[in-house]
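Consider this:
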Amino acid sequence: MLMVLLLPFLPIKRMPIGKWPLRPRHYLKSFGALRIVECWASDVPDGKVTDFRMAVKAEENEEVVFSWIEYPSKEVRDAANQKMMSDPRMKEFGESMPFDGKRMIYGGFESIIDE
C-alpha cells in the first residue's frame, strides 16, 4: 500500500528528506512506513494539456518532487496518516516545510504490479 505525493520545491531548498531540519522520515518509519522514496524531477517535459509542473502549479523557480511511502497495509497507512496529523512534531514540521503544502497532491494507491 502506497501513499504517493507530488509537490513543488524551491531548488535552493533541494536536500534529501532525511536532511531537513525536522526529519519526518523518522516519524513516518515509527508510524509503520517500510520505505520512503523521494525523486527530484530530472526530465519532466512541459505538456500541452497538463504535466507534472501544472499539476502542482509549480512556479518558474520551483522544481517538482515525486515521492512515495510504502506501508505493509492500508490499515497501517491510514493509522500512520492519523498519527501524522496529531503528532506535535509533525505540526512543527508543517510550520517549517521547505515547500508549499497547499499545492501538494497526495493520495493512497494499491500496487497492481510489483516486479
Remarks:
- The chain has a mean pLDDT of 84.
- DSSP finds four helices and four strands in the chain.
- The helical segments are 24-30, 52-55, 74-86, 88-95.
- The longest helix spans residues 74-86.
